[in-house]
Give the backbone structure.
Amino acid sequence: MLSCRGLISFANAILASFIRTWYGISLAMLFITTMLSHRIGLSFGSLFVSIISWPSSALSQSNDSSGNSPGLPMVINTWGGDFIAATDAAFLSLVRSGASALDAVEIGCATCEANQCDGSVGYGGSPDENCETTLDAMIMDGTTMKSGSVAALRRVKDAISVARAVLEHTTHTMLAGELATDFAISNGFIAQNLTTADSAASCEAWRAAGCQPNYRINVTPDPAKSCGPYSPVVATNSSSLTSITDRTSPLMTRRAIQGHDTISMIALHGSGGSMAAGTSTNGASRKIPGRVGDGPITGSGSYVDADVGGCGATGDGDIMMRFLPCYQAVESMRQGMSPQLAAEDAVRRMLRKYPDVQSGLVVVNSKGEHGAAASGWTFTYAYRGGSMDGTVVVSVPPLEET
Ligand SMILES: *[C@@H]1O[C@H](CO)[C@@H](O)[C@H](O)[C@H]1NC(C)=O
Ligand SMILES: *[C@@H]1O[C@H](CO)[C@@H](O)[C@H](O)[C@H]1NC(C)=O
Ligand SMILES: *[C@@H]1O[C@H](CO)[C@@H](O)[C@H](O)[C@H]1NC(C)=O
């Protein structure tokens, strides 16, 4: 077993040095060997997974995250549960395989895409009105500030890796829709049907129940009763339209009950101070075809500046992307706020206009000190760093009203 692991890390060290030239091959090998070593370590690792619950009073009053860094390297991401496998895969790639921070984020998010974490990441989840799953992903390098993303990606499972291809093989930042699929195929990714028996059945059940609930407003026929097709309602006066400031979809409430969505991850490399961040999601169930959420938006789904720190977000993306909460949190840290205060501040900026918004933000500075804040649901995040034997999950109650 030891010699097997030794061989694995030796192979990875060799492979890592070829990353630039042999990017595709080496990354696949890194991923496979990391998953392998993860499986070897799984029986031990899972013993150490623990839940820490912070009382909300401690959370909302503390503005001091100092001293809570587990040490570097470190990986931190939204959610526990299924998502812990992603934390572990990313962390182990850093310590065992000599992966870069960017590699670690890609490996972590790809783990959730392959595992279909909670049905909210990867293929076969969150079917849109047409029963199709489309993917949003972004990856960002905190040293160069380059970011690559794909939005409403169709028929390709590997959204985070396609986002990285945008980062590495173009001078663009975002590609979208069917043409992003063409780009992915031309970069060697495989096109396949993202619908599964489960996602098809869930979509059919929704249609059979009159397409309730859905995201349509101000249309006729009444979207609370009908599947459409819809036409816009012509406003006779301004108060005849649904208020645009105060609507949290019942679909988000349903998701809150399920518990999880998007994976957003930040990786801190042990040496050289490099950091990366990324996000991957299949978006909102029953979304209107073409909808893009906060996930692939730089500064919203995640953000990182290795001089300061990084942030990952999850929640009601349609609202959150209007506030760039991760950009806000990182910039607040630059101005001197602790990670904890920066997270709370960014969430409160959304609550000011959308008191019902469901959000979760995890924030980490370049030293690995971290904090989080949530609204509308109990959020969890996972981290592993330094010499930790396993991933720790922290439960974050919603901010209390002030
Ligand atoms: C929070 O920070 C402010 C200013 O930085 C400080 O005055 C205050 O004592 C801190 N509060 C806590 C609970 O640490
Ligand atoms: C994708 O798979 C689903 C479920 O198996 C099927 O209903 C659908 O027709 C397929 N779509 C295409 C384009 O092949
Ligand atoms: C505006 O529209 C609402 C809803 O249709 C209606 O109840 C109200 O009387 C209208 N107000 C005016 C000034 O026309």
